[in-house]
Amino acid sequence: MDNRLTAERLRLDRGKRRLIDDVSLTLDAGEMVALIGPNGAGKSTLLRLLTGYLPVRFGECRIGELPLDRWSPETLSRRRAVMLQHTQLRFDWQVESIVAMGRAPWGKKQEQDIIQQVMALTDCLPLAGRHYATLSGGEQQRVQLARSLAQLWQDDGPQGWLFLDEPTSALDLYHQQQLLRLMKNLTQKGNLHVCVVLHDLNLAALWADRILLLHQGKVVAQGTPEEVIVQPIIEKWYGAEVRVESHPDRETPQVFLMQ
Ligand SMILES: Nc1ncnc2c1ncn2[C@@H]1O[C@H](COP(=O)(O)OP(=O)(O)O)[C@@H](O)[C@H]1O
Ligand SMILES: [Mg+2]
Which atom of ligand 1 lies at the shortest distance from residue 38's CA? Predict the structure, then answer.
């Protein structure tokens, strides 16, 4: 099965502004791709187009051979899950019920074993019984991740496309590392394909196989972390004064702000 996700010449205008400007990209199965870029670059908007949350009017987006709008909503939701930047819920449900919502595309029965497994993977078991609205921002992010993994669970693990919009923005150091290690392990097994918007360039450099840098709705740089996280590129597109050095344990670039 061709699992590749391909976007060709995507464009999105809102009023007089062009939010996404001629973006073409390919996401390969089994890779972890990070989308980076300054505030307002269009990362969240692009993610919405790639996942079908916003209709593609100009250009095309396909999973395999089939354009997104030709997938039935049910089949699509079994193949791709999305964790948006802000998730507001109308009901104040318990954590387990939110995670169980991820199983909706698969029928009525609540597979307790799957729910327990994804909660364990995301460190949500200590949150069992709590009401979602009473959780901290970081705890809510972990619950949303668990829900997304539950949505893609087949047989013995998640399969398909997982899109995450700044999933680590409210996480403490331990949970940032846990989330990115988990995503890396799952993609390396070959069945999960991850596209993640990351604010933190150092996290992107450490864990992504490939990085796409967005600026004013355009992809202005892409490649391996070593190719993209370099001083001239970061200074040019972020406008910040930085130094880039290797991580002490490996060749991966890490960014330091100049005082
Ligand atoms: N519905 C909309 N109408 C007008 N402008 C929008 C809309 N949605 C987003 N924008 C603007 O598009 C730009 C990109 O937004 P966004 O994709 O959220 O950026 P990022 O996630 O990279 O920070 C921003 O300048 C934002 O204000
Ligand atoms: Mg955003």
Answer: 22
The CA dihedral of 197, 203, 124, 100, to the nearest 10 degrees, is 20
Closest Cα to atom 1 of ligand 1 = 14
Digit-coded pLDDT (tens) for 134-187 = 999 999 999 999 999 999 999 899 999 999 999 999 999 999 999 999 999 999
Domain containing 115 equals 5-257
Token pair for residue 76? 């699509």
Report DSSP letters for 203-220, one per residue: HHHHH-SEEEEEETTEEE
User: What's the pTM?
Assistant: 0.95
- The 10s digit of each residue's pLDDT in 1-36 is 578 999 999 999 999 999 999 999 999 888 999 999
Number of domains the chain is built from: 1
CATH of the domain at 83: 3.40.50.300
Q: Which residues have a Cβ under 8 Å from the Cβ of 25 and sit 6 or more positions away? A: 6, 7, 212, 219, 222
Strand pairing category for 157-158 and 153-154 = antiparallel
Measured by CA distance, the residue closest to atom 6 of ligand 1 is 14
